[in-house]
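Lecture 7 notes. Example A: sequence first, then its structure tokens.
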Amino acid sequence: MSMQTASASVDADGFTRVVAKGKRGRPSRAQHHPRVAHALATKDALTTKDGDISTTPQTSVLPGKRRSSKRQQPQSTVDKQVADVKEKQLVLKSDKFRNALQPCLDVIQGFRPEEIVCYGIGSLATQVSQWQLALVLLINEDLNMGMWAYDPVAIASDCETLDRFGVSIIAENEQAKRKVTKRTLFFMPHCEEFLYNNVLSANWSPESLSRVLIIGNHLGRYKDTQSSEEFATKSPFIRKALSGVTCTDLPSEKLLGLRNNPFAFTDTCVQLISGTLDF
């Protein structure tokens, strides 16, 4: 049994008050606990000279725990776009879609393109544009051709993403009026009607058209969606080329096995233009 000392004093009412004391100089056992010590230290730090409690926020760290100064950096826009396109490339290589794509690849390889020019892919922040870029990269895996691209809506991050995939940026808006000097695959999914007409008008000769292959909207659809007079006025070169166009449709997006189709390749086909047209 431990011995304690006591002190006595007489109150004003005559009662004697006895107060027990612990061992001299020894703090209570609870004060040794690290969390209690931390709480007491924190209270002392928040107490002003006048004895008031400060309301200024303080940063406290429990013993043995330090706040890390390193924070995980968010993924950059370009890195995310590159990763998204690569993921879509893997989906496109699935057996069902890849096998169904083979007839298109046979036409392209038979054409033996020497360069690929991409118009109208759009902003790579969108899913549709990422699917379209993934497709043309897949097409070029066996060809290993130089690739060029232009879209007026492209921003710096889009250009950097294209550069990561080895695609060069066309410096100015050609309005699709590029006159070819070598066999050129024009990759133009979902472009405007006048851009297809411009490709044909810029290369309207047997020699030049023999160097043109277009992956894009069915050219014949434009004839079916407007009057003959309007079609002849808006797209005279498409109208004249139709009799020599051979189409090979891209596979259905349903073969990708996605919950929602991206609508990136709808109404899209590979189109060869015969050099035996009436020029």
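Example B, a different protein, same format:
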Amino acid sequence: MPPRTIKAAIQDALEDLTEKKFKKFCAALLDRRGEPRVKRSSVEGQDYITIAQVLVSTFTEPGALRITLELLREIDCNEEAERLGELPHEPKRISIISISQSIFAHGPSAGASAGRTMSGDKHFVDTHRTALIQRVSTVPPLLDELLDRGIIKQEDCHHVGYQEPVL
């Protein structure tokens, strides 16, 4: 049997909630302070299947899983969060650090022969740079990792409005 998708796992987790807990989950989703925000019209009156689709389309599958786990814990559905977090449905992750190191070490068109687009000689990363940057939703952890690996300096972090974590 093929591994379940994250979306299917989220649907199952939301389906298992009582009606009261499901409403609390939706309220917590709407009350989230982080970006991107979910529109009230996308959530109110919707079923668990639609809410799972909204999560995935707003946050991508890995982000939807992270947000769902956070919200389940926030509304004291810890058992449901634990079951969802234990399932073998998370895809293999590509390290953003390895991508950024490759891009910065070899210039903007590193590996261009393997990543050319149909429309021209530009590398995929060059062509879709803005869209890729806009999909980064958690900048501080990314900056922490780049800082820890010595790829950027502390002053570079301050240029993007980053503050050091309090230890």
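Note on Example B: The chain is about 60% helix and 0% strand. The two ends are 45 Å apart (CA to CA).
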